[in-house]
Please model this.
Amino acid sequence: MSSSWFRAAIAAVATIAVLVIGLALLGSFDTTANPDTGLVAGSNSFMLVLAVSLLVGFIVYAGVEFAQTRRLDSIARQFDTRTIVLMPIAIAINIVLGQTVGTALKIPLYLDSIGTILVGALAGPIPGALTGLLANLIWTFVLAGTPFGSPYAWPFAIVAAEIGLLSGVFGYYGFFRSRPNTSGPKLVGGLFVAAAILFGLVFYGVIPFYKGNFTFFGASPTDGFFTLVAYVIAVGLVVAVVALAVQLLVKRDLGVAFIVVCGAICGVVSALISAPISAFVFGGVTGSGADILVAAFQQAGSTLEQAVFQQGLLQDPIDKTIEFMVAFLLLQTLSRRFTSRFPQGERAVGVVEA
Amino acid sequence: MNPSAVAEPSAPPLTDADRAYLASLAPPATSPYQRLNPLTKATLATIATLSAFVLGGYLAPLAILGILVIPGALAAGALRRLVRGAALVSLPISISVALVSIFTRAGTTVLFTVGPFDATREGVDFAVQIILRLFVTAMALGLFGLTTEPHAFVVDLERRGLSPRVAFAAAATLETIPLMVERALAIQAAQRARGLDTEGSLGARIGGVMPLVGPVILSSLTEVEERSLALEVRAFGRPGRRDLLWTVPDDGRQRLLRWGLVVAFMAILVTRVSGILTPLP
Amino acid sequence: MLELRSVSYRYPGYARLVLSDVNLRIASGEIVGLVGRNESGKSTLCLVASGLAPGSVGGVLTGEVLIDSMPTRGLRPFDLAQRVGLVFQNPNTQRSGVTATVFEEVALGPVNLGLPVADSVERTRWALDTLKIEDLADRDPAKLSGGQAQLVAIASILAMRPAHLVLDEPTAQLDPEGTRLVGQALTALATTGSALLVAEHKTDLLDRLCSRVVAVDGGAIAMDGPAASVLGDPNFERLGVERPARYRIADEISAAGLTVPGAIP
Model:
C-alpha cells in the first residue's frame, strides 16, 4: 500500500536526520582513537543517539499516519484489551520493585524492568516499548507528589523503551520458551553457543572500555587498576558460564541459555544508552548503590564518561540477566491458558498442550 | 442492522443542577495556580527542568527557580511544603553526586584531603552545579505534583486526543500501585507468620524479598483475564472519542503561555547548541 | 430474543468441547435460571451468550448465536455491549479502577459507548434508581462492601440498557447480607423489561425469581422448562445441584409420612 511506504520513507528520513544531527552535536564523527583507552571517541554516545533517532522515527511515522487517517491503526492493532489491562499492572510492578527493592535495600541492582519485559514478551515490541516509556513518565509526572514518585526517572524513559522493544523481539523469536528435557548433545551445543556469544560480547563489547590497549592482558604498568578489573570481568565471565552450565545440566532446560544471552545483550545495550544520560544529567550517579564504582574508576584515571560506561557495563548486564531470568520463571509459572490469550503469548511461551 | 450503531441520543439536555453536579466530580482546586490547566503546569515543569540542564551553570537554574517555580509555589501557598519535599527527594542523590564527584573527579586545585582522596575545586564546582540542577528538577516537578490531580491530568490529555485506552492504562496505574503494596504487605505478614526472617542482615533482607516478588506479581497477573473481560462488556476499546462527564477548562491565555514557553525553550536550545550563547557562569 | 442454535464451543488450545449442541432461546422479558454443577459449562454458556466467547477469549464456536435475529459471529464485544450484558462473580475485578465515585463508575459504560453526556447521566441515574443505590453515588467504589460493590457492578451494566442481561453466579463471593442485597436487586431488574439469564448455585434465589429454569450437565442442556417442573423434578439432584429448601423440606415431610396442608407439591 503506497501510503505506508510513504509514511515509512518520511520516518526513515526523520530517523537519519536526527541521527546525523545528534552525532554532529555530540562530536561523534571524530573517529580517531583515544590513545589512552583505544576507544573511538565517537562511540560514547552513539547508542543513545541511535535510540533517540529510532524513537523520533517512530513518532514521525505515527504522526504522519494520524495526519493521513486521523487514526493510529497500525499501532492500535497490537493493543488489545488484555494488553491494556496488563500495562498498569506491569508498570506498577516496575515502580514498586524499583522503588523498594532497588532503592531501599541498597543492593546494586535496579530491578525496575520486570513488568516491561513481561509486556514485551507477551504483547510485542511496541507495547513493551510503550510500557517502558509510560512507566518512567508516569513514575515522574503522574506519581509526582506521592511517596512512589521520582522526579529522576524520566530521563531514562528511552532506556526502558529499548528494554521493552528488545523483550518483544526476543519473545517474537521464542527465546522465552522453556525447552525442558533437551538431549545431552543439544545441551552441550547450546552451552557452547551461549558461551561463545557471551565471550564475544564481553571481549569485543565490554573489555575495550577497561583496557589501555586492546591486546588481551597485555598492558602497561599505568593501567594496573584497569587490568585488574579486566581480570575480574574475565573471571566473572567464566564463573557465569560455569553456573549456566550447571543450571543446564540440572534442569536440562535449554531455555535458560537463551535467557542468559538475551539478558546479557539487553544489559550491554542498556548500559551503552544510559551511560551518556547518567553522565550528563546526574554527573554519573545512578542512585542504585553502584556509584562507588564510578568514583573508583574516576579515581583510577577515567573521565566521567568513561567511568560511567565502565560502571554500567558491569552492573547492567548482571541486573538485566537477573530480571530476564525472573521474567522467564514467571512466564513458566503462569498458566498457558493465561499467556496464550495475549497477542504474542503463544510465540513467546509456546503452545498449550492438550 | 448496523451492530455498531448506538441507540439514538434521546435524553433531555442537561439542567444547570446537572452541570453543577458533574462539575463537582472534578477534583477541587484550592488556589488560582491549581486552577490552571494541567497541561500548562506540566509544560512549566518540563521546560523549567530542561532549561536548567541546557543552560547549566549557577545563574540559570537559580533564575529558572525564581521565575518559573517560586511564583507558582507562592500562588499555590505551598512553598514551604515544596522546598521540604524537594530537599528530601534530592538529598540521597545529592550525597551520591557529591561523593562521586568531589573526591574523584580529575582536577588541579586541591582544597583538602581525606585519606587517599583529594577534594578538588573542579570537583566541588561540578558537584554543586549538578546538585543545583537536580534540586531545580525536584522543585519544578514537585510543584506540578502538589498542584495537579493525576486523574485530572489524564482526563485533560484524553480531551486533547489521547486514546481512551492509553488514558485508562495511565489512570489505572494510580490505583494499582497502592493495591499492590497492600497485597505485598499482607503476603509478607503471612510469610513472616510462617517463620520467614525478613529483618536483619543483608542476606536475610534479600532472602525476605525474593519469596515476596513471586506471589505479589502472580496474584496481580492472574486478575488480568477477569478484568479484561469485565471491561469489554462495558464497551471498553470501542474505537472513537468519548464524551467525558467532566473536563478541565483551558483558555487562550494559557495556550499562549504554553506556546511561548516552548518557543523560548527552542530558542535557548538552538542558541546554546550552536554556540551563539556562551555557557553562563 | 437471545438465541443459541446448535452451539458447540471449545477454548483455544484445548480439544475438549465444553459446550456441545446447545439450543436455547430466551425471549425478551423472560427471567431464566441456569443451574449445573461446577465444570458443567454454566460459565462458558454465559460467556458465549454475551459474545465474549469467542470474541474476546478466542476458541472455536460452531453453530449460531443470535441477538434479535442478528448473528453475533465476528462481532467484537464492544459492538455487543449495549445488547447483552454480563455480570461476573468477583465484585473487585469488575471495578474499573479509574473512577473516584460510584456515579462515574456506573457512567463508564455509557461513556464508553460514545453517548453524549446528557444520555450518560440519564442512564446512570436510572440504573442507580432501579437498584435503589442512589445514596452510594458519591462514595468511593473501592471502599464498598462486597454486596454494595456487586450492586454497583450490576448498575454499571444496567446503565447500558442491554436487552439481555446475563449474570454468572453473582452472589458466589458474597456474605449473606450481600446475597440478600443482590437478590433484591435481581427482583428489581426483573421489572425493567430486560431478559435475564441468572446462573446460580443458590437455587432458592432462582425459585423466587425465575419463571423458567435450564439445567446444564456435561456441556449439554439436560432440562429446560417451567421453574416448578424443573426444580421439582425427581432427577434434579442427579445434576449435582441442591434443590431449593422448600422442595427438600417437602420431601422430608412426605418421607416421614406426614402431610402438611399448603405444602408443595
